[in-house]
Amino acid sequence: MHEQILEADLTFTGERFEPGVQVSIGKDGRIAAVGRLGSKPTRRLEGRALLPGMVNVHSHAFQIGLRGRGENYPEGTGDFWSWREAMYRLAGDLDPGRFQELCLRAFREMRRGGITAVGEFHYLHHSGKGADFELDDRLLAAASEAGIRLVLLEAYYSIGGIGKPLAGAQSRFATKSPEAYWSQIDRLAGRLDPGLQSLGAAAHSIRAAGLDEIIDLHTESRRRGMIFHMHVEEQEAEIRDCVLSYGGTPMKLLNQRLEIDSAFTAIHCTHTAGEEMERFLALGGNVCICPLTEAALADGIADAPRIHHAGARISIGTDCNARISMLEEARWLEYVQRLDRRRRGILRDRSGNLALPLFQAATLNGARALGLAAGRIAPGLWADLTAIDLTSPLLAGAVPDTLLEAILFGVSEEVVAATCVGGKWEERP
């Protein structure tokens, strides 16, 4: 790949859009320089604005196959368990070819929506013919074909609930032991595309792995210098079971028993007590919120009253992929918090620019949670970029000072004109 000099009509420089900014991309796919370079552009992005690509921290790609399934309340229950039942049916029925097809579909849709990197929280490992981990390889192949930057978060799953054995489709999620898990991690490490793919460790949840196993997995991940992700307090039932079995809530136990730092990302935290959330964030941990999924499953609202003052701690994921839209996830994140604050009688903090921390949650903070050199347009980082069509009627009337707000709060993915991953461009069809 030859060196590129990009020049868009407007380029987002971290806090604002500016004209006349050039971006130099080296042969290695990383940004070499940014500024008024005085060079002749090799790619002139006329009528377009250039932003860092969005980073989707938490995805279950195969669940895109659930669209239109499980969207009804089971008769007489008043709860949304039908969706989870549909997920288990899908997981039990998928053959490797169909699994790869669904993952490719999800990853391509992410690219079309301006997402250039994804953390794939992957727990559906086996083909159904034994513990073959065939679907791990299929996932890597799908991401490679889509050209998306992938962090494969290999999820450890050993129990079907605290004190319960695996049942039904869960056998396809199983890892027999931490030793078997790390053996698979080592195998996968030799199969990655080093320019686009990396590995992270994950324990599915307190309901899918024993507390001692979680501690051991996290300790080894730290020794290896890997990021670590985990579903935390997504469901009220798992919190009750955890308190009965271990004497504390999942987040409280993690704060007490693990050495939390910037490599740890807790997913959802839907029912996490405010003080435990603040303690986790103060220790350096990251929180990934998936507003569309948390609303669709009626799980609840995360208690994150100071989300705009949490620094680089809050990120966003698309989770079940019923709708793949980081823009919608970001605005739901803000709107739901506004409603929840009003319900609780908390005055809204009017200080600062609301759009900037939301955009950072979708880019810079996400890159931090996934351990990626991305999320900004800056020298040394990957050239993972999104080009926005400034001529779109959806952006009529937007000026540089209002463009970020217009994108985050007023448009759909239709305004995405192209994406670039590691210096390689793909026009939106």
CATH class of the largest domain: Alpha Beta
Output the structural class. Answer: alpha/beta
Distance between the termini: 23 Å
CATH architecture of the largest domain: Alpha-Beta Barrel
Give structural notes:
The protein is an alpha/beta fold and 429 residues long. The protein folds into two domains: 101 residues, Urease, subunit C, domain 1 (Roll); 317 residues, TIM Barrel, CATH 3.20.20. The protein contains 13 helices and 16 strands. Strands 1, 2, 3, 4, 5, 14, 15 and 16 form an eight-stranded mixed β-sheet that branches. An eight-stranded parallel β-sheet has the order 6-7-8-9-10-11-12-13, with helices on both faces. Helix 10 packs across helix 11. The longest helix has 18 residues. It is globular, with a radius of gyration of 21 Å.
Keywords, separated by commas or semicolons:
429 residues, Urease, subunit C, domain 1, eight-stranded parallel sheet, globular
